[in-house]
Design brief:
mainly beta, Methylamine Dehydrogenase, Chain H, four-stranded antiparallel β-sheet, 6 helices, 28 strands, 40% strand, globular
Length: 403
């Protein structure tokens, strides 16, 4: 099934003499609630776009216990419209990585960032070409922090999903750094272990593990509690460039220039399956490319039943978790990254031309079996599942071995 192109965003600035090195969209990001979209549209600029809200959701946003009278309600509605305007962040350097996080405790009189009272407070971290990380308040566009420490390009960023304001950055200086924004952006740990540029980092939804990949054939798995290396995941034949955890933290996928996606059990290190990228259309001329299906990006769908991949063969692919061939695809050019909308239904992709494209994705009603598995695996490790007094077939299902 071919995915349908829903919309396309293009940079609003003319190409400069150095446009080839400065206009790429290396990163796209949706806020956790799906209310904002950010893209590194090149030219040292990040564009923030408010995502349309349903009328009922807007009413909920405007509700507040302290509302007293129509005047205050009108004032809050005006503040909401002002905060939801499209914004441009001038970062001063080429932007490589983006990551959203909620900032807890955005209430009247709060000391931390000056969010509009009663509105959700959201921050965006940007990883820059000179090694800086700039953290912005989304509603106002104000710069909150400039984090210094990396010696080269900050290629990727990942916040802990639990709202603790722990940020992990991955850099070409071959390190990962852990920052605590609740303590004024203090650097709390430097993780060394890679010998090549670090391309991507991903924190598990349960906040217990961190995966990082570099220009190496192995991925590194770290503990987010002790910041120590748990294990190396070896199996790829070329550089690993992207990784992502499933929504229940029970699966980890890694994508490589070897044209394969490997699916792992992060708790045991066992490789569960391999998805190989074969040519989709014979009409496409691959003769001039050495690595026609070299992968650039991989991500899980919000319900955990699909994967999306972007490869150099100019296709976006969508994979069913239990199938070995794509269930959907879309022709695209020069793809670099992909990300699912948090509520499902479509995928955003970024390209070397500085464009962002939005594609339809399969919508699925999760089975009761999968919902139960997802609920259990959210708090049970593989070892805890294997220790349960239940039938073997049920254990295999809960540990994703029944593909």
């Amino acid at each position: 099934e071919e995915s349908v192109l829903l919309a396309e965003l293009k940079p609003g600035r003319p190409q400069r003499y150095d446009w080839k090195s400065s206009c790429e969209t290396w990163s796209v990001a949706f806020s956790p609630d799906g209310a904002w979209f950010a893209w590194s549209q090149g030219h040292c600029v990040v564009k923030l776009i408010p995502w349309p809200l349903e009328e009922a959701e807007l009413c909920k946003t405007l509700e507040h216990k302290s509302c007293d009278g129509k005047a205050e309600a009108r004032s809050r509605e005006a503040a909401s419209r002002e905060a939801a305007k499209e914004k441009i962040l001038e970062c001063g350097q080429i932007v490589w990585g983006l990551a959203f996080s909620a900032w807890p405790g955005a209430e009247a009189g709060g000391a931390e960032p000056a969010c509009t009272v009663g509105l959700p407070c959201l921050i965006l971290a940007t990883g820059l070409n000179d090694g800086q990380i700039k953290v912005w308040e989304v509603q106002t566009g104000h710069l909150l922090f400039s984090l210094l420490g990396h010696q080269d390009v900050v290629r990727d960023l990942s916040f802990t999903p639990n709202g603790s304001l722990i940020l992990v950055s991955a850099s070409r200086d071959r390190t990962l750094r852990v920052w605590d924004l609740s303590r004024d952006g203090r650097q709390v740990q430097v993780l060394s272990g890679h010998v090549q540029w670090v391309y991507c980092c991903s924190i598990s939804p349960d906040c217990s593990m961190l995966c990082s990949v570099a220009g190496e054939k192995s991925a590194l798995l770290w503990s987010m509690r002790s910041y120590t290396l748990i294990r190396r995941l070896e199996g790829h034949q070329s550089s690993v460039v992207s990784c992502d955890f499933s929504p229940d933290s029970a699966l980890l996928v890694t994508a490589s220039y070897d044209a394969c996606v490997l699916m792992w059990d992060p708790y045991t290190g066992e490789r569960l399956r391999t998805l190989c990228h074969a040519p989709l259309h014979s009409t496409v001329d691959y003769s001039s490319e050495v690595h026609t299906s070299s992968l650039r990006s991989v991500c899980f769908s919000p319900e955990g039943l699909y994967l999306a991949t972007v490869a150099d063969d100019r296709f976006l692919r969508i994979w069913g978790l239990e199938l070995r061939s794509p269930v959907g695809f879309a022709p695209m050019s020069n793809g670099l990254c992909c990300m699912y909308f948090p509520h499902g239904g479509f995928i955003a992709t970024g390209t070397r031309d500085g464009h962002v494209q939005f594609w339809t994705a399969p919508r699925v009603l999760s089975s009761l079996k999968h919902l139960c598995r997802k609920a259990l695996r959210t708090f049970l490790t593989t070892y805890q599942v294997l220790a349960l007094p239940i039938p073997k077939k049920l254990k295999e299902f809960l540990t994703y071995k029944t593909f």
